[in-house]
Amino acid sequence: MALYSEKVMDHFRNPRNVGVIEDANGIGEVGNAKCGDIMKMYLKIEDDIIQDVKFETFGCGSAIASSSMATELIKGKPVADAMKLTNKAVAEALDGLPDYKMHCSVLAEEAIRSALEDYRRRTGESCSGVQKTPEA
Ligand code: FES
Prior knowledge:
The protein is of the alpha+beta class. Helix content is 40%, strand content 18%. Helix 2 packs across helix 4 and helix 4 (87-93) crosses helix 5 (102-122).
């Protein structure tokens, strides 16, 4: 059996949503200290919907495929849905990843979460959805 599924190979060779969003209102960057891979996510959110998402990943093929699939899974979705995206869902959508490559999908989950938290910081909304009191 091939080590990587067709979907992993497809998203690795033709990653979707690669790039930068200049006027992003949520940006997250995460890294894995062990392998040194880095992932950056850009979100453009309007009316609580993820209108656009792009990523830059300096990492292994599984990290690129995971970021590509993760962007596809959250594009057009409400913020609350994107917040619930797990690395398991990303790996499943890719028809699986080898065990020792699961951490690559974790990076995608963390990058999206970090970008969403940035968005909520910017809009003054805490992660629990409670509006922050403006500073006096
Ligand atoms: Fe580090 Fe894949 S080997 S993210």
